[in-house]
Write the structure tokens for this entry.
Amino acid sequence: MISRKKLLVQWMLVALLLSACSPVILPVPVLVPAEQPDTPAATTSATTTHNMQDTPLFNVTIDLEIPRDIGSGSLGSRYVSYFKGGTIDGHNLEGKILPDGEIWYLIRSKDCIAELIIQGILQTDDGAQIAFVARGFSGVGPTTMELVAQGQLVNPADTLFRGVTFFRTEAQQYAWMNHVTTISTYQYNMDQLHLVVYQLHP
């Protein structure tokens, strides 16, 4: 004799098989999003872009030693210059550049791109030290690449590099610089490097 429990299980299996052969319509409510008011906040949030200040966050001038040719490789021609010193001038930041830094100048032969990699330490007027790393890029024309192929060091004085600069410090009064997002322009004429640093705002 089939127990009531087994009978119930059999009926459930039959119902499951029947449901697999025909669609089951459940009374599930359809959620309709509420109409949003036409406010400035609602219309501009989807098109928000990052804006750059017209006024630079600060300007940096770095005096450099004579570039040293450290040889060509698979990437291209590479040079390095060491810092002599420098200055930093801005609304919220004043100080000097310590001589413990360097700039790497690479002209990439594969894609005709000139690249700057800069790293150093700035010291503010109130004694705080802030490490920075910057990287900028610029295109190189065919004439310049011919000079590079001949082994000549090309002075990029008329070239404007663009890139990013990052900062790191333990000084609490400048902790905001650990999180700031910047866009920078660089002008490099072998003797000096000029950086103009702009802050991006969401």
